[in-house]
Design a protein that fits this description.
Shape: globular
Largest sheet: 6 strands, mixed
Oligomer: single chain
Strand content: over 45%
InterPro entries: 6-blade_b-propeller_TolB-like, Glc/Sorbosone_DH, Ig-like_dom, Ig-like_dom_sf, Ig-like_fold, Ig_sub, PA14/GLEYA, PA14_dom
Number of helices: 5
Protein name: PQQ-dependent sugar dehydrogenase
Length: about 900
């Protein structure tokens, strides 16, 4: 089953910070580091995405909502450096930052963010003035390609190397983008600081996008790092269903294989990861790699063994691992476990310590190293004010030689049993008010924390929240609008006003969650729309939260889960057992995938491919449409069948198959049960016409033929195609269609005469309205060429045209007459207009039938009055090509051929 782990971690909004507080003591106790290492909180920053260190010691931290914050001397400054207007849906927002190599003198900061309308991501340069931006200093460096409706897989990481800016970009939840060099999606770019194309990039010709590409075949490289000194580039690419990758992009032009490959591959065209770890639970396994950094600080007090190693982290399983790169094969070791949820953006600070962000609690943490020392307090307990009856927790973080012992005191008196790094009072009363501190000790000594004051206010009953809609057990489909409403009461205030309401939505995937659609707060009701693109796994659901806050500051939180409706998409091939693609990844048929209804999926083919010793090329999908197409998961289970045929070389006009008088031919599906052996047939010249005779079998008086092949045209001019039977009957050529050697598609009806330019042309001829079942011969002629035969073995019956239908077709289907059929335009683009005339009322059905006999579009019109009727058939979802138009009206059937050319 194909699953997708989105890379940018889900944001617990500010209202959840108080929920997480009760978990802090558990997290502190559960953390495991090598001896001497510990974690210290630097500052609180809600919804962080990425950080960067300034040469003067300041730390810039981006928030998803567009604010760029400054942490100075360990304190988060109240005034943001800047506040951008961004679209922060899903994984969008302010998601990338890089400081200019000459930041100390020019104060340039480069930011990667999503425009407010969500149309695209942009890279811009801003100029600082101390701790704030210079107003109006934005200079657009590069506007990236337009975004789809999918809000995930944006990438965003940026770093400078040798004065050039490297930018990592996700494939916007469309795997095909990763292999398309003419889009920025799914790439690592290398550009000049002004956005122009530098010398030395691997692709020197073609589109602007192609010439900026440094590496490609990436899914969502949310982070990467460049090793000081060596310039080695490691890309951390978030995987889909199986593997998380660390890729070496030091050399330009490398293709890392997505979406064809995930993890290691045997395909020689792809570069395998330096290291890949599998999905799953526990240390060393995960769901999304969200950070990685080379540890090469100028100075550090970390043990020397860590210098030159690569630290990386995962979103889900709360660990940091480290790679030893000194040998031929990287060696993984655990470093830290039991950390907080949703960690990302690990980096090395100017002080030689590791830093990383945690979105679950909205904070920046530093990992420090001390050994053979007496305890030292690194995070002091904080004074708190609570309402009687509510819980309260005091916590401390300390370093020193393990093991550390803790003893909490109230008003300088030991509290029995309070011997952990945190102390919780589950039901606070007025008698608990006072000062709290902790004594931390080890074999080398002890230290006493500062006092934290507990203030207990009078009892205040907490509010009670209720989600009214959607109802319990509610289901959703992609594209659906979800209406929500709620109510809340409070013992002191009664019914709470709308201003007390805060709503938000989380999108849950497997064991982790991401930001859901944006919803309004300060309202008692509203709505949000379920996206139709992005995550394709069925192991998902939405959780709607309602948080209400009373005048005393107490809150009540409730939530309602909304589960998906699901259908099964089955993929099969003819012949059975061949490969197709699902969301860009190869799969062997038959295969089935459970999918959320209304979610867009991509199905495609692999053509050519070798199967059972033969080379096959794609012929068609039985349901119609292009080789690669986006489908919306339907309400009911569905099977899509890809038809392949043995490759005859027909698709390459420069290497045509067997020819007769310069005409290559192929046999298409018809009444014969097996492919005729053309090698045993000898062309016969009769009056300058060369033909291969193959008597038709089981044919009735009314039938149609299709021919596909190539013609070699000696000179520009008008060429005529003929069809005759051996008894002299004149037969009508329905349509002759040619894809010219300049790529222009043309079609000529009825006359069989068409203008052609010199060169090879792919040719398709449809024959209808035969009046004889005798042997047929076909030929063509034009300037500089006498009549040349078309082998009759190339003909095949169109099974969609039964004799009763053809018998009711007008004798001349292209002539307007009473009871006739008129269509326009032809070729048609967005719509086909059909005029029909009948003497009596009746319902009408208008259908388009493919050359292979499959109905690709059908529309029924209710009871219509007699007379001339003008009907419209939309063509937006119909692929280019030739079709048979069938109109059933008042007991009659009218038919003619039409061409669709968008």
């Amino acid at each position: 089953m194909i699953k997708s782990n989105v890379s940018l971690p889900a944001a617990y909004t500010g209202v959840l910070l108080w929920v997480m507080a009760c978990c802090m003591s558990v997290q502190l106790c559960a953390q495991t580091f090598p001896t001497g290492f510990s974690r210290v909180q630097v500052a609180s920053v809600s919804n962080p995405t990425v950080m960067a260190f300034a040469p003067d010691g300041r730390i810039f931290v981006a928030q998803q909502n567009g604010a760029l914050r400054v942490i100075k001397n360990g304190t988060l400054l109240a005034t943001p450096f800047l506040q951008l207007s961004v679209n922060s849906s899903g994984e969008r927002g302010l998601i990338g930052i890089a400081l200019d190599p000459n930041f100390s003198t020019n104060q340039y900061i480069y930011l990667y963010y999503t425009l407010p309308d969500g149309s695209r991501n942009r890279i811009s340069r801003f100029t600082g003035n101390g701790d704030v931006v210079v107003s109006g200093s934005e200079v657009v460096v590069l506007n990236l390609d337009p975004l789809s409706s999918a809000t995930n897989h944006n990438g965003g990481a940026m770093h400078f190397k040798n004065g050039l800016l490297y930018v990592a970009i996700g494939e916007n939840a469309n795997g095909a983008n990763a292999q398309n060099l003419d889009t920025y999606h799914g790439k690592l770019l290398r550009i000049n600081p002004n956005g122009s194309i530098p010398a030395g990039n691997p692709f020197t010709t073609g589109s602007e996008q192609r010439r900026r590409v440094w590496a490609y075949g990436l899914r969502n490289p949310y982070t990467f790092d460049i090793q000081p000194g060596t310039g080695r580039v490691f890309l951390n690419d978030v995987g889909q269903s199986t593997w998380e990758e660390i890729n070496d992009a030091t050399t330009g032009g490398r293709n890392f294989g997505w979406p064809t490959a995930e993890g290691n591959s045997t395909n020689a065209n792809f570069i395998n990861p330096v290291f890949a770890y599998p999905h799953g639970s526990g240390d060393g396994r995960g769901c999304a790699i969200t950070g990685g950094v080379f540890f090469n600080p100028t100075s550090t007090n970390y043990p020397a063994q860590y210098t030159g190693r690569y630290f990386y982290q995962d979103l889900c399983n709360r660990w940091i691992n480290v790679l030893d790169l000194s040998g031929a094969t990287p060696v993984r070791s655990p470093f830290a476990t039991g950390l907080g949820n949703n960690a990302l953006s690990i980096d090395v600070g100017l002080d030689g310590n590791l830093y990383y962000l945690e979105r679950s609690v909205g904070a920046l943490f530093r990992i420090i190293y001390t050994v053979n020392n007496a305890p030292a307090i690194v995070t002091q307990p904080v004074s708190q004010t609570v309402t009687a009856g509510q819980p309260v927790t005091f916590s401390v973080a300390a370093t020193g030689t393990a093991p550390l012992s803790y003893q909490w005191q109230r008003n300088n008196v030991n509290i029995t049993g309070a011997t952990s790094a945190s102390y919780t009072i589950a039901n606070t009363q007025a008698s608990h008010a006072g000062t709290y501190r902790v004594i931390v000790s080890n074999s080398a000594g002890s230290v006493t924390s500062s006092n934290a004051t507990l203030t207990v206010n009078a009892f205040n009953a907490p509010p009670a929240a209720q989600i009214v809609t959607p109802a319990a057990g509610a289901l959703y489909s992609g594209g659906q609008t979800i209406q929500f409403s709620g109510s809340a009461t409070d013992a002191e205030q009664g019914t709470l006003p709308a201003s007390a309401f805060t709503w938000f939505v989380d999108f849950h995937h497997d064991t982790h969650n991401h930001d859901g659609p944006a919803v309004a707060s300060g309202v008692t009701s509203g709505s949000f729309v379920i996206p139709t693109s992005g995550e394709t796994s069925d192991n998902v659901w939405y959780r709607l939260y309602l948080v209400v806050t009373d005048a005393g500051g107490l809150r009540d939180t409730v939530y309602r889960d909304i589960s998906p409706r699901k259908s099964t998409i089955s993929l099969v091939t003819q012949p059975a057992g061949m490969q197709v693609t699902l969301d860009g990844q190869p799969v062997t048929t038959p295969t089935s995938d459970l999918s959320v209804e209304g979610i867009q999926r991509s199905i495609g083919v692999i053509s050519p491919q070798t199967f059972n010793g033969q080379t096959y090329v794609f012929d068609r999908w039985l349901h119609g449409g292009s080789a690669t197409q986006t489908i919306s998961t339907p309400v009911n289970d569905v099977t899509y069948t890809a038809v392949y045929r043995v490759d005859t070389g027909l698709r390459n006009p420069d290497n045509p198959p067997t020819t007769v008088s310069g005409l290559g031919y192929a046999y298409y599906e018809g009444t014969w049960t097996a492919l005729p052996d053309f090698s045993t047939l000898t062309p016969v010249e009769v009056g300058g016409v060369y033909s291969l005779t193959l008597a038709p079998r089981n044919l009735q008086n009314n039938y149609g033929f299709r021919y596909t092949g190539f013609v070699n045209v000696p000179a520009d001019g008008s060429y005529t195609f003929y069809l005759n039977s051996d008894d002299g009957s004149r037969l009508l050529i329905g349509t002759t269609a040619v894809v010219n050697n300049d790529g222009v598609h043309t079609a000529q009806e009825a006359s069989g005469t068409i203008g052609l330019r010199q060169g090879k042309h792919q040719l398709t001829i449809l024959y209808f309205q035969a009046t004889s079942s005798s042997v047929l011969t076909a030929s063509w002629a034009g300037p500089g060429i006498a009549k040349q035969g078309i082998p009759s073995a190339a003909y095949s019956r169109l099974p969609v045209l039964p004799s009763r239908a053809m018998a009711s077709t007008d004798d001349n289907m292209y002539t307007e007459s009473p009871g006739g059929l008129v269509t326009y335009p032809n070729p048609a683009t967005r719509a086909l207009f059909v005029d029909i005339t009948a003497e009596e009322p009746g319902a009408a059905t208008v259908s388009l039938v493919s050359l292979h006999g499959h109905v690709v579009k059908s529309q029924h019109f209710a009871e219509l009055p007699a007379g001339v009727k003008s009907l419209t058939l939309g063509l937006e979802d119909v692929s280019n090509g030739l079709y048979l138009l069938r109109v059933e009206y008042a007991g009659q059937v009218r038919s003619r051929t039409v061409s669709v050319l968008h």
